[in-house]
Amino acid sequence: MAVHLSRRADRAAAVAGFGRRAGYAAALLPVALGAAGLVVAGRADRAREWWARVGGEDPAVVARRPGAGRLLVHALVCVPLGLTALVPVGVEVLFVLRGVLYPLVESGPYDHSWGGPTLAGAWAVHVLVGLPFAAAGLGALGLLHRLHHRLAGGLWGRKVGLGPVLALLVTALACTMLVIAWTHQL
């Protein structure tokens, strides 16, 4: 019985940790812009605290305490990552609006809607179709947080390497192409 409760608690902690990381990834753009503004305003100490919180670092035990220049460069590098995070955030917003809140955004008739002709059928199909996309969006946010954590390693004295930098460039380019293609089809 105690082992079963322990596993459940471990699972709940893992889900909560993943949710926190996905939330931090979703907030990367405002944090990057805010941190850059703080550094320019002479509040590098506050920017350092922000990056430590977002990156899951403990500033008391890190190998290096980043200076204002390094904080500003990291903020500027994180702007494309934050812009990239807007894509899965948009997927989550669309899932809520077009799936969960479907009856509020579509007034009917539902004769030509997926799952129609009834509201219940259309609503259920829109939620079920959106679920895999919502899961993929959350997964993408988790991966973006992991990429940010790898990139932020240089900020705290760890070796970063070329892999995370290339991953950032490829991801930002792919998301740019996706957004351009999506806006052209509108």
Proportion of residues in helical segments? over 70%
What is the assembly state of the chains in this entry? single chain
- SSE pattern, N- to C-terminal: HHHHHHH
| Continuous helix count | 7
> Residue-averaged pLDDT, rounded?
84
Distance between the termini: 55 Å
Q: What is the approximate shape? A: elongated
What is the total tally of β strands? 0
What structural category do the secondary elements indicate?
Answer: mainly alpha
Beta-strand content: under 5%
Low-confidence region ranges = none
Structure description:
The protein has 186 residues and is an all-alpha fold. It has 7 helices and no strands. Helix 2 packs antiparallel against helix 4 and helix 4 runs parallel beside helix 7. The relative contact order is 0.13.
Task: Please sum up the structure shown.
The chain is mostly helical. It has 7 helices and no strands. The mean pLDDT is 84.
Helices, strands, pairings?
Layout: H1 2-26, H2 28-40, H3 44-55, H4 68-100, H5 102-105, H6 119-152, H7 163-185
Helix pairs in contact: 1-6, 2-3, 2-4, 4-6, 4-7, 6-7
Name some characteristics of this structure.
186 residues, 7 helices
